[in-house]
## 1
Amino acid sequence: MADQKIDEATGTATMGHEWDGIEELNTPLPRWWVLTFYATILFAIGYVVVYPAWPMLSKGTEGVWGWTSRGQLAAEKTAGDAIHAKVRAELANVPIEQLQDNPELLANAVAGGKAAFRVNCVQCHGAGGGGGKGYPNLADNDWLWGGDLKAIETTIKHGIRSPDDAETRMSLMPSFGKDGILTPMQVNDVANHVLSFSGKAKPTGSGAALFAANCATCHGPDGKGLRQFGAPNLSDAIWLYGSKPSEVTASVTVAHAGQMPALERASRPSDDQDAGRLCPLAWWW
Ligand code: HEC
Ligand code: HEC
């Protein structure tokens, strides 16, 4: 431009603005900055062409490479399943009693079991299997139904008093008080006898007679429990429903009949379906 003024000190053209003798220079942007700026524009155009980018009404633009995060997940899952399929097939063929002879397979089973426990068991038995009132501790040595691998497998497969499994573990303690089998006095007497097993009360003749007549078939003559009935040991320090006299009386008045669901399922909704239901953005692409 003809009327362009050149700043003497720097040799740069000015913008023509001046405030109290201070002039604005028209310094060009550094070349590296301009090049980087153009490069980002090129990158963005390339990205929009090859990857899913713009949300449209019902679907996003797909991109020429056809990549989707769901597709990538599926591919990774297929690869993971292929690795696990071999171990799963081996596990299915080895009876659980023989698992201990095969340390590598056992380690795989334990790892898989750990994950399954977190999904299926912690809500009742607690994170470390410590249990709670009515939910047995699985980390101790006191077992209602048996603590060897085979017994535990049966418990998990068929549940306990599970209404939807014909082979479920079943035994029902009568509600002695509620159903009028024993009078409230007799309930107190026999509860007192229960507490005498662990030295918390003095045994009485009437309590002992009531126990022998009504309870020994399931809990054993000395209250040590019988596993074929899932009847707890009443003489130790471990209680499912509490050891206070009031709690023991309550257990005898109305039986608890704790339930555990049968957890062997032939099939479950596929993980993909689950993911679809869980991800509210799934409809997007
Ligand atoms: C809805 C709650 C619930 C869930 C879920 C549950 N359990 Fe149980 N489980 C129970 C109850 C209640 C008992 C005790 C039943 C009884 O009184 O005999 C029990 C008992 C057991 C026993 C028998 C303990 C013994 O002393 O013999 C084992 C073993 C067991 N559960 C393992 C599991 C495993 C493993 C899972 C997960 C795969 C699981 N449970 C999930 C409620 C549950
Ligand atoms: C048909 C078998 C059966 C008979 C008979 C029976 N029980 Fe039980 N009892 C059980 C079972 C099974 C449980 C565990 C119930 C559960 O987990 O819900 C149990 C639980 C208990 C408990 C709770 C134990 C705890 O750890 O909190 C007490 C106490 C008890 N019984 C006392 C008695 C007394 C006393 C009698 C006799 C008057 C008796 N039972 C008769 C099967 C029986």
## 2
Amino acid sequence: MLTDTATSAAEADFEIGNYRVSDEDLPEFRDLKFENINELHIDHPGANDADYRARRDYIASCAKSFRETGEITDVEYNAREQRVWRYVAEELEELQQRYASPFYLRAKKDLGIRTDQIPQLSEMNRRLKELTGFRLAPIEGLVETRGFLSWLSYRVMLCTQYIRHHSQPAYTPEPDIVHEAIGHIPMFTNPNFADFSQFIGHGARIATDEQLEQLGRLYWFTVEFGLVEHEGDIKAYGAGLLSSFGELEHAFSDKVERRPFDLETVINHEYTYSDMQPVLYVIPSYAELKEVTRKYIESFGK
Ligand SMILES: [Fe+2]
């Protein structure tokens, strides 16, 4: 995710209980600051592929147009991009039937996310707004942690639209449409999860640097790598799990310690990005996660 902040997203007069964010409440998307990641790193699977880089530039122009007009531009994905999606989405679908939270599986269907074509942010955004008032905003680069999380306080998720390079369909060094649409977006249809995400956003706007680091850990062990109890079983709802074959299978293997969620433990748990996660946390329900997080964020600044 994420360098300099959407400063306008840090105004103090925005109430924690404001679940209905109107268009007028939103900061200007045109002020959004992000790192340009179109200059692909030398290690990136697409770094030496001129066609891929041209596609990234075209898709970045769609996000740029959003910042100017506020309207999401549909991306005209080409046949190769659709093939990457189909391969990854089908593989994940199979694993998810075994491991994903039933809420998530239903939500994916409700949002019309299919394995045979890349979904458009415009359509998912329209459905989300109806269901929980959450919105999606296209972005082509990385936004620093505070800035990225702060947008959640407006019930806005910044989303990429490009897709990973075809040479390594199981891997992406940065979030792509697979990670966003298969990992993150379905969970925002859950009212408790949507409110919980908004609390994280509120927290990010008022957190000290130390609190921000703790919030980052909470985000990591829930939004990215969260597990949830379901009828005596454990299921995945975290985007980092749901959008990666390797992570999803690993999460349910005996190499992972699955601990009951405890806020204090989670916010102090240092993790590493690069390795598979050896410890994961299981929440009892999305409603409880929301309430624990509300109390935690309300303690900021006191
Ligand atoms: Fe993510």
## 3
Amino acid sequence: MKFLACSLAAFLLVSCATQSTGRKEFTTLDSNRDGTVTSAEFSSHITSESFRQLDANGDGRIALAEWQTKETARTAVPLFQALDTSHDGFLEPAEFSSSNKKRAHLENTFHTLDRNGDGGLTWDEATGS
Ligand SMILES: [Ca+2]
Ligand SMILES: [Ca+2]
Ligand SMILES: [Ca+2]
């Protein structure tokens, strides 16, 4: 899971640390626009964003070649095969988002950011200020 964990963490750092685009990212994360990002809003956005980044040719599925060109390790192949539950050599969005381990990682990241533990992420918490 190292590979996914890294790319997700990298995405988070980029989106949270860049002040200029950070606010926009936060608003994107806050899909119901109530000023806080819930765990559900967080996971669904990060998942779709990671998928979009990995799907280099934008055909809506991730081929092994696309999977491997990102910060790759050979160890990513078993993970790809594990996620590809239909065994057709492509990761569909549903396959990509159904990983329990990835879900657990996102939950952890969310709880780390949610410093007061109220289940919602405010702008201040997201930026660490
Ligand atoms: Ca919200
Ligand atoms: Ca693709
Ligand atoms: Ca598949």
## 4
Amino acid sequence: MTDEASVADASADGDVAAVASSSTDMSNLVLGDLTVDRGGRPVVHDVSLEVPPGEITTLLGPNGAGKSSLAAAIAGLARVRSGSVSLGGNDITSWRPERVRHAGVSVVPEGRRLLTDLTVADNMRVATYSLDEEAAEDGIAYTRSLFPELERRWDSFGRLLSGGEQQMVVLAQALVSRPKVLVVDELSLGLAPIVVKRLTPVLAEVADSGVAVLLIEQFAQVALAMATKAYVLEGGRIRYDGSATELINQPDVLHSAYLLQD
Ligand SMILES: Nc1ncnc2c1ncn2[C@@H]1O[C@H](COP(=O)(O)OP(=O)(O)OP(=O)(O)O)[C@@H](O)[C@H]1O
Ligand SMILES: [Mg+2]
């Protein structure tokens, strides 16, 4: 396992950001034989996967498979027992969450909500607090272009927004720093299919612009339609690793892992 202190000594945040922006390949997120602990026991075992820039990769798996634990490990929020997380060849295993974010990896945890007693504008201000003025302005303009319907909601309190609009703000908060990697844990949870349909083209646009997108979902349909590569996690282990299109044609895998909705 990586010694966090030695990594911290070896490279300052700024160095990594500079290296990582030098080429699109440098935004490749790679997990190597990753084992993640939750509550003191391993719940994700030896998982290797790659999230390349410019496309959507999906991680599917039934309830309790370990998907959110994996996302938490990428974000620096869960303990990595062994294996590695790397970004563009730089080892970022066990980095503190804010350092992971600063290196360009933005993770939307499962069930993330906006602050409903604040306006959309204030929610976005919260998300840009660590950016300098120019980066914040640029990021806000970018997210407004991705979600033009938020424009008329800008001064509304979060609690007055629809579920879909709230999810847009959450995505906008994750994208405002213009990350190299975007990890979204259960985008579609609790949202009507029509709302999900509005959000998916935005993720496709984000991927097209060169971002490495990892979409974590419990159910397969929406994610597989968008993704290039797919992984299925079951009992903390990778059960399928291949093209999304090929997985669509393997209903036995999808059925036995409870990845199809009625
Ligand atoms: N904070 C925690 N403390 C202890 N155990 C946990 C914790 N979080 C998750 N677990 C356990 O880790 C395992 C994996 O859970 P995880 O939430 O990662 O799965 P998941 O694939 O995201 O499931 P879901 O589809 O329900 O979101 C489960 O057995 C769960 O009970
Ligand atoms: Mg989960």
